[in-house]
Structures are given as C-alpha cells and as structure tokens.
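Recall the central idea of this unit: under ordinary conditions, the amino acid sequence of a chain determines the structure it adopts. In this exercise we apply that idea directly, starting from the sequence alone.
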Amino acid sequence: MIASVIAWLETTAQTVPLSLFVLLGGLVEEILAPIPSPLVATLAGSIANTQNIGVPGLLWICALATLSKTLGASIFYFLGDKIEDLIIPRFGTYIGVTHEDLESFGERFKGTWKDIGVLLLLRSIPMMPSTPISAVCGVLKISKRTFFIGTYIGFYIREMTFIVLGYTGLAALDSLMSGIDTAETIMKIIVVGGAFLFLAWLWWKRRTGNPAQWLKRK
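Accordingly, the structure predicted from this sequence is:
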C-alpha cells in the first residue's frame, strides 16, 4: 500500500498545482509514517526548479508544506493526549503513575522559548522521527503553544532543507533520501525502545519507591 501511495504522490506532483501538492502531500506524508519524510519536499523542490520559481516562491511553498505537516503532527498529538486519558486511569496504578502526575510533568514545560527551542531542534533534525515525538508530547500534556510553535518552526527548517536539495538537483539524491529514511527508521526504534525502558523504569520504581514524586519534581 505504501508503494502505491508513493506512486500516487509522484503522479500527483506532476498533475496539480505545486501549492496544492505540498498541502496534500505533506499531510499524507505525516500521517503515513512509513513514507520517506524527504519525499514531498524534494519533489516540490525539483518541480519548483523546472518551473523557475524564485526564492519568494520557495519560501511560500515551504510555508504551505510546513503548515500541512504541522496539522498532520497535531493528529498524533491529540491521539497521544486521548490515549493517555484512557489508559493511565485504568493501568497507571500498575506502574505507580496517575493522570495528574503526567499533567504535573507536562507543566514543567511552561511554553518558554527554551522549551520551544528544544522541540524546534528535535523537529529540524532530518532523521528524527516525527510521529513518536508528536504522540509523546500529547501523552505528557506539553502545552499546545509549545507544541505548535516548536513544531512549525522546526518543520520549516527541515522542509526547506529538503526543498533546496530537490531544487539544486543534488547528485545521488535518491541515495541520500534512502539513507535519511534508514536513519529515521533506526531513530524510531530507539525512541520506541526508550519509551518501553521508561515504562520499565517506572514499574521498577513502583516496587522500590514512588516514581510519581520524581515526575512532580520541579
């Protein structure tokens, strides 16, 4: 199915206006995590080159692509928030963490520019997986302001990097995209594995102490 979606994106890129393509493509790319994250932006950059689109046009195309991907990321943010609301009240006692504990932990990120900068940095790294970060932000109740500002600016930097690569026709671009996709897959495994280790640590702390006190610590 993913191969079919990629083929559809490549065909769509040639048949619809570029602004519409990045809006549709960015959303699909963000929701369907297995799609290589550089795909839409590098295609957009390549098409922009053939259409002789200048710097102002590239900035606008990047803004649209970033908006679309931010909307896609927000879906997983709200899913993470709702899943936490459902799971923690039922199973949180097994690891000694409550809904209130997570909210208290999320309040440590008060929306300062330092907090936004951390999320911005994570979002701007090309091989950093997007979906787990969005979901974790939702689970930990990171403020919406921090999430949306950090996500948009970070995604803008990331998307512009890929657009420029596509625009300049960088040699061995396919190999580069494959390498980024592989690195992103590895990072997804690390992030998910880290989440499981965190849960295991909470379970262990429950047997030896109270992890909720650590989560509430300012």
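The mean pLDDT is 78.
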